[in-house]
Specification:
Elements lengths: L7 H16 L3 H11 L5 E2 L1 H7 L9 H10 L4 E2 L8 E2 L2 H5 L1 H9 L1 H5 L24 E4 L26 H11 L16 E8 L2 E10 L7 E2 L10 H6 L5 E6 L2 E2 L1 H18 L2 E7 L1 H10 L5
Parallel strand pairs: 4-10, 6-8, 7-9, 8-10
Antiparallel strand pairs: 1-3, 2-3, 5-6
Amino acid sequence: MTHSVIDVGSNLNENLERWSGALARGGDKLRVFNVVYSSKRKQWTAKEISEELDGAIHPYKVPNVAKKLVGDGILHQVPGSWPVIYTKIPDIQHYKNRILALAKNGRKRGALPTKRKPQMDVKVRVSGRPMKLGQAVEITIDDIDQFARVRKKKKESPALKPLPEEKFKRGLLKLFGETGKFPDSGIERDDFITNKLTMKGRRHNAAFALKGPGLPAKTMNPARWGKRGNQIQKLVSAPAQVFILQAEKQFDEDSLEQLQKLVEHKAAQQHRTLYYGHIDRADSLRLRRAYPMLF
């Protein structure tokens, strides 16, 4: 049985960083990884993985999770097998404990010297203030001053039909006192950008990407943000300090992770604090209930 060839010798730290990063959020990916790599068994089917987890992941969902692990280079899928068979990758098995340790410790994972960020011992004399390190801070609608009324609304509110994207956008623009026009051209980086968003009285430039009910999917994954699946990347490229995704749907982990990673990268490059968050179905309802005259 053949496996994908990985140049571990010359790229060990790069691979360790990539593998552990793929498992850092835990969840179903980590559960499937632990099942496959914590047993002496050589081959697994989706049904067998689900049974080993006592049904914690449905057999129909296991292939979706396993597909991500295969894409991360962590799991091998036997070509042409039916039912589909998954096997360990020898190099992953060898470094399993180290991968898991790095997945749990983001500081150590980030400190791994790689070709992109080699470890160097440099003595520098610096005068004046030290350079500010960038950071990405997650926020919710409860942190935004213009949405203050939602803090008095319970998350469990009666069901309402999802609003068209344009109507929800108009409600947000009114809340921010934004009088500009933001037509939907299909090529813009965001649905609208405003410099009137405030948190604890301090103003910030904020960019929003909205997705209306026209998309039939119930869950938002990265591929469903934009025709090319690149709307999250475009949003974070906007000249803003706050980046918000909104859809009256459920958000999957991949969308949230992509937003987080992109904002973290931008914050590190710009050496400043940036903010990110999302407004899902529940929080959209809270906004609509708190400000019924605007939505």
